[in-house]
Amino acid sequence: MHELAITENIVATVTQRVPGARVTGVRLEIGQLSGVVADSVRFCFDLVTEGTALEGAGLEIAEPPGRCRCRDCGVEFAPDWPILLCGCGSADVQVIAGQDLVITAVEVAGSEVR
Amino acid sequence: MCATCGCAGTGARVHDHAHDHVQELPPGDARTIALQAKVLAKNDDLAAGNRAWLAGRGATMLNLMSSPGAGKTTLLERTAQDMAGQAGRPGLAVIEGDQETALDADRIRAAGCRVVQINTGAGCHLDADMVRRGLAALDPPAGSVVMVENVGNLVCPALFDLGEAARVVLASVTEGADKPMKYPAMFRRADLILVTKSDLLPHLRFDLDAFLADLTLVSPAARVLTLSAETGEGLGQWYDWLAATAA
After folding, report:
1. How many Å apart are CA B237 and CA B39, to the nearest integer?
2. C-alpha B7: how far from chain center
3. What's CA B38's distance to the chain center, in Å?
4. Axis crossing angle, helix B72-83 with helix B235-246, rounded to the nearest 10
5. Order of strands, sheet of A67-70, starting from the edge strand that comes earlier in the sequence
6. What does the alpha-carbon distance between residue B58 and residue B53 come to, in Å, rounded to a whole number?
7. Do A35 and B159 touch (CB under 8 A)?
C-alpha cells in the first residue's frame, strides 16, 4: 500500500508550495504505467488530508495512457501492459509517457488567502 | 528543469533548492495555481544525495528486493561468509529493512558483517530518507558494497529510488514461475535477477525455461543468474558480478 506514502507526499508538497492557503481542490496526473493505483490514492486522500489545509478538498485524477518508442525500429506505440513489446518483435523499448506522478494544479479559496 | 518543482529553474541558483518553491498567492478570488510538482521529487532528491554521499567515500550500494522468504538474508549471510578476508573481493556492509524485529540484523552480524537494522513499522518499503539515516549509522568503509535488504514485498519498493547503483531482484523457485508476469513493475526495473534455491529444482514443478522466457519479455535488459546459497551453485557468478559492479 505505497499509495498511503504517495498521498502523504502529495499533501506535504501542496502544503509547502501554497503555505497559508486553504486548498479546495487538487489535480493529479497518475500515469497508467506509474505503478500507482488512482483508486487507492482517492481512498487515502480523505484520511491523509484530515486536519490539514487540504481537508475537504476535491480530488481530480487524470490517468494518461502509456506510450513507448522502439529503440530498434523507431516506431511509437501504445504498450499492452505488462509486456512492453513492439510490433516488430523487439523488447528494447523506451517508455516515453504514462510513468509520471505529478501534482498538476491546486485550487485555493479566495477568502482565506493572505 | 528542476526535479523538485518541475520549474524551468532559471533563477540565479540552478538548483540547490534555495529557490523555495513557494507560490505567490493571488489576492481576492479563489483561483487555480499550476504546480507541475513531481510527487516523488523529495525522495528522488534524497536518493541523489545518497548516491553522491556514497560516491564521495568510494562505496557502492545495491537495492535487494523480493517477496518475503525468497532468500535475501540467507544469500547475504553466505555472501558475507564467503567474501570475508578474500583478496580482491569487496567488503560488505548491510542495511536491513523489515517492518519489525532485528532478527535479520542479528543473523548478518553473526556472519561477521557490519549491519544496521531499519524498522519501518507500518511502512511497506524503504525510502531514501530512511536509507540516508541508515548509511550515516552504518558508516561504510571506502571500497565497500552496501547491500540494502528492502522490506519483503514485490510491489511497493519498486517505486522508491534509494540511491542504489543497481537493483537486484530475487525470485525463488519455490514461489512459482509466473512472478515476472504478476509483478512486472518490480522485474522491469531490475538490473540483475537472481533465481534462488536452485538446489530445490529437482523436487518442484517450477518451469525455469518459462520463467526465463517471461523475463525476456518483461525485463529484457536484466542479467539473470541462477544460484543456491545452500549448495553454493552459481555463487561464483554472483560474486564476480558484485566485484565488477563495485569496481
Report:
1. 38
2. 29
3. 21
4. 80
5. A76-77, A67-70, A93-97
6. 9
7. yes
Residue corresponding to grid cell 559492479:
B245
To which residue does cell 558480478 refer?
B241
Whether ipTM exceeds 0.95: no
Burial of A48 (0-12, 13-18, 19+ CB in 10 A): buried
Residues of A in contact with B155 (CB under 8 A): 2, 35
B44 residue type, one letter: D
Instruction: Note whether A85 and A74 are within 8 A (CB).
Output: no
What distances in angstroms separate CA B196 from CA A47, B57, B165, one per listed residue?
40, 31, 21
Give the integer Cα–Cα distance in Å for B152 and B64.
9
Q: Which three cell numbers stand for residue B171?
A: 525470485
For residue A12, which residues of chain B lie inside 8 Å, CB to CB?
Answer: 42
Interface test with B, best of A4, A7, A108, A112 (most B CBs within 10 A): A108
Q: Which residues pair with B114 in a beta bridge?
A: B93
pLDDT, one tens digit per residue, over A58-110 is 999 999 999 999 999 999 999 987 788 899 988 888 999 999 999 999 999 97
